[in-house]
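Observation: inputs received (chain + adenosine-5'-diphosphate).
Thought: call the complex predictor directly.
Action: predict_structure
Action Input:
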Amino acid sequence: MPEGLNILTIKGVSISFGGLKALSGVDIEVIKNSVHGIIGPNGAGKSTLFNVITGIIKPDSGDISLEEKKLSISKSYQLVPAGISRTFQNIRLFKEMSVLDNVMIGHHVHTPMPILSILLNGKKSRKYEEITREKALEALEFMGLEDKKDEIVKNLSYGQQRLVEFARALAAQPKIILLDEPAAGMNPTEKINLLNIIDRLRKKGYTLILIEHDMKLVMNICDRISVLNHGKIITQGIPEEVRNNPDVISAYLGK
Ligand code: ADP
Ligand code: MG
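Observation:
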């Protein structure tokens, strides 16, 4: 693969929890402006990989580089300025707050003002609040959720809440968006909508990494797929290569 095409390079990442090797020598290259799927049975290490990329977990060994620069995230607030945002396997939203407020939190990290001065509500902070609101509304519009902006999150369907989280990740204006099982709990119509959103983001130049169990969705949307089993990459490539790989089939059948 020619240099410069990659946006994210994961090299030799290993991490153990007690005696359990959750990731073992994982190498993945994510091509810029692509959708990269991460699949594998439950407990394979997929979410752990996201936790390592986002600095929640420090690996025992290995490196992660973003655009050829070593990525070292030790505090969660460093993540978005580095160009990465994510969603979680278990939705993490402020359920009692409005949709718009939840998404505005995603953009806030870009405002160069401390939270205190925003709260004091000076003239400058109002300007930043306006920008934050504008970016949040754009992200909601992209998800087709603009008419839900004033709803309280807990009143939305599960699938809609997943999109609110996605909108929050998008409002942060990242280069890479990590989605941890975004289709979980979605109905077939919501899944088609999700597929569309991901495709439109790719066309806009974003890079997405997608952990997903719905094979149809994964095979339809991903440019490349990495398959994890027991913390190890068993194969990676384009969907057609992965689909028919006997190791993938047996990993899923539990043989
Ligand atoms: P997946 O997302 O592929 O289902 P995970 O990455 O969540 O799998 O988990 C991989 C393995 O690591 C599992 O056996 C899980 O129990 C374990 N694990 C994940 N995170 C931790 C942690 N923080 N502490 C201890 N064990 C963990
Ligand atoms: Mg997981």
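Thought: report the result.
Final Answer: Residues 17, 20, 22, 40, 42-48 surround adenosine-5'-diphosphate (ligand 1) (CB under 6 Å). The radius of gyration is 19 Å.
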